[in-house]
Structures are given as structure tokens and as C-alpha cells.
Amino acid sequence: MKTSDFFYDLPKELIAQTPAAVRSESRLLIYNRKKGTLTDGVFTDVIDHLHPGDVLVRNNTRVIPARLIGHRPETGGTMEFLLLRRLEGDTWECLCKPAKRAKPGTVYTVTDELSVFVLGEADMDGGKRVALQYEGIFEEVLDRAGQMPLPPYITERLTDKERYQTVYAVTRGSAAAPTAGLHFTPELLEKITQKDVKIVDVLLHVGLGTFRPVSEENIEDHQMHLEYYEVTEQAARTINEARAAGGRIVCVGTTSVRTLESVATEDGQVHPGSGFTGIYITPGYRYKAVDALITNFHLPESTLLMLVSAFVGREEVLKVYEHAVRERYRFFSFGDACLFE
After folding, report:
1. What distance in Å separates the CA atoms of residue 54 and residue 40, rounded to the nearest whole number?
2. Is the dihedral of CA 186, 188, 194, 196 positive or negative?
3. What's the CATH number of domain 67-145, 2.40.10.240, 2.60.40.10, 2.30.30.100, 3.10.180.10?
4. pLDDT of residue 124
5. What whole-number distance in Å separates Cα of residue 213 and Cα of residue 258?
6. Are 60 and 199 contacting, i.e. CB atoms less than 8 angstroms apart?
7. Which residues of the chain form CATH 3.40.1780.10?
8. What pLDDT, on the 0 to 100 scale, is given for residue 127?
9. Which of 18, 114, 208, 246 is 20 to 30 A from 135 via CA?
10. CATH number of 3-63+160-340
11. 197, 55 Cβ separation under 8 angstroms
């Protein structure tokens, strides 16, 4: 298939620049795969589509303030660093902008507490290895020095950093939020639990794959980069027991999907484990562990749109998106959500 097969027209004004005033009051477009029907609603309606015995799987990664602006006092030059993955100690894999000027041996001052030392090329396209030099407790220094790594299509300044975190974010390490989870509130999660729906946490630290567009003409030529995941024994057991009892596995976001599909066997059994996954899901892929998906609306020609197309069907997804554009849904990270059931 061609990358252009996943293109759709999106008016620029539909790209959400700010979060919804109340997380759970964003809109929800519901697509029933068996009936082929579309229903417009609000996100709190999701509870009506979760049934006793189902499992809601979410990604509890926490975004770090991974965007650093460094300066060279001797030249006045400025460099933007986006921390993607900790390699070892204080060495990180990152994106630099402008990358050509990030020469090995160069030091950039971010604050009085933090500097970035460029080491050289990383094992990825356009990436660098850097060493962070700081005084004090790293997490505290980074919180003071860094900015939230919002996608480039968001131009508004984020006044509250927590609005780019899910309310259940725990484990620090992501360079981007698992944005389908941004719609949940503690109150909605409590109501879901009271409905005898189990909630299971998995972990996938979102990295370069979120930022790297598909530039190849044929989608099979695209190379996914590795992201760290964890699935605990308890999470795997809960999912497998629910499936055996006839419950559905409902994933919150594409990161939860990629995590489960990375550790599932052909018969749908989920195994505990941790490591790095580069799973690339495109049409033709047979899902093993996922029965329903809650997700935001994704960029044209993106790997995430391909993943959803593999779950629903390319033509069906494009029809859903055509409806969303016509009905003026809000798109991308701070936008509205879609339930594919």
C-alpha cells in the first residue's frame, strides 16, 4: 500500500490548540464495526459501551519535560533538544534542532543547573547522543529547566503542564502523552470500576515514532523505532482471565494496543514481560489481543492512522474521518476521541 492511501483533507482550524475545558466533556464519535453505524456523543458516553467483565487497558506512562532550549554563550547560538530515551546514566538519545549544527563536543547551557554535551550520532535518523551535566536531583532539575514536548502543530502555550498528562500517569519516561487517555477523569474511572469493568495498567514510553512522519512511498519501507514497554504478571493474568470468561479487551490509545500486541501469542494470550518494541501495525495485520479501541483522531499518512485502519479497515476509517471533519470534531492530541467497537 502507498502512504498516500492514508491521506485525508483536514481544515487547519480543526486542529485543537488547547485541551477541552473539562477532560471528559470532549466529544466522542462511536463506530460500530459490525453494524457500520456512526453515533455522535460526548466522552462520558463511553461508559455505556463498556460492559461488566470487560477490561479497560491504559498506558500509565508519564511525560517528562523533555524539551530543552540550550545556548552557547561564546557564539549566541541556540539549540533545541528533545529527549527521547535514556540510554545509560545521564546519556540520552534525542532530536536536535537545527541538527546539522549539533557538533560532537559542543556544550549548550540550558540553565545555571543544567548543560547538554553533544556526544555524536545516535542509532536513528537525525538523532544524537547527548550527556546531561547538572547539579542536584535530576528529576527536580529537569522539571525546572524543561518544557512539555508538545507536538509542532500546537502553537498555543500550555498554561497547565498537567493537562498534557493523563490523571493516572505514574512512570516518568515519555516524550509525548498517550493522548486518548487525556479524556478520563477520576470520577469517570470510578464509575467504570463500579460497573464491574476491570482497569489494567501497562506501560509504553512514547518516543521517536510519535514525531517521525512516514516519508517512504510504500508503507512497508517505513522503519519504526524502538520504545520501552512493561506488562506485569498481574496485568497479563487479569486480561487473560477476562478473555477466557468472554469479556472484551478495550484499549485506551494506540500505545496500549502496541504494547498488548507485542506480548500476545496467536491465540490471544497476553504474556508478562518488558523490553523494547518496534511493532508496526498496518492493514493486513491480524489483531490478537484487542477487541475495541478508544483513540483520538490521527494525522494524515501517519503510522497511527495505519494502525487504526488495520483494526477497522482503511475505507471505513476514512469514512469515519470524513464524518468527523463534516461535523467539526477537534483533531489530534488535544482533540476529541473515537471509539471503535
Report:
1. 23
2. negative
3. 2.40.10.240
4. 59
5. 18
6. no
7. 3-63+160-340
8. 82
9. 208
10. 3.40.1780.10
11. yes
Q: Is the dihedral of CA 85, 87, 91, 94 positive or negative?
A: negative
Report whether 305 contacts 3 (CB < 8 A).
Answer: no
**Which residue's entry shows cell 469493568?**
197
CATH 2.40.10.240 residue ranges for the chain:
67-145
Q: How far is CA 289 from CA 18, 27, 113, 171, 269, in A?
A: 33, 27, 46, 24, 7
Burial class of residue 100 in the structure, from the number of CB atoms within 10 Å of its CB (0-12 exposed, 13-18 middle, 19+ buried): exposed
Hunting for cell 477523569 — which residue is that? Answer: 185
Query: How far is Cα 30 from Cα 130, in angstroms, rounded to an integer?
Result: 44
> Per the structure block, which three cell numbers stand in for 247?
469479556
pLDDT in tens, the chain (341 residues): 999 999 999 999 999 999 999 999 999 999 999 999 999 999 999 999 999 999 999 999 999 999 999 999 888 899 999 998 888 999 999 999 998 889 999 999 999 999 999 998 876 566 899 999 999 999 999 999 999 999 889 999 888 999 999 999 999 999 999 999 999 999 999 999 999 999 999 999 998 666 678 889 999 999 888 899 999 999 999 999 999 999 999 999 999 999 999 999 999 999 999 999 999 999 999 999 999 999 999 999 999 999 999 999 999 999 999 999 999 999 999 999 999 99
Question: Rounded distance, CA 78 to CA 178, Å?
Answer: 29
**What residue type is 131 in one-letter code?**
A
d(CA 251, CA 297): 15
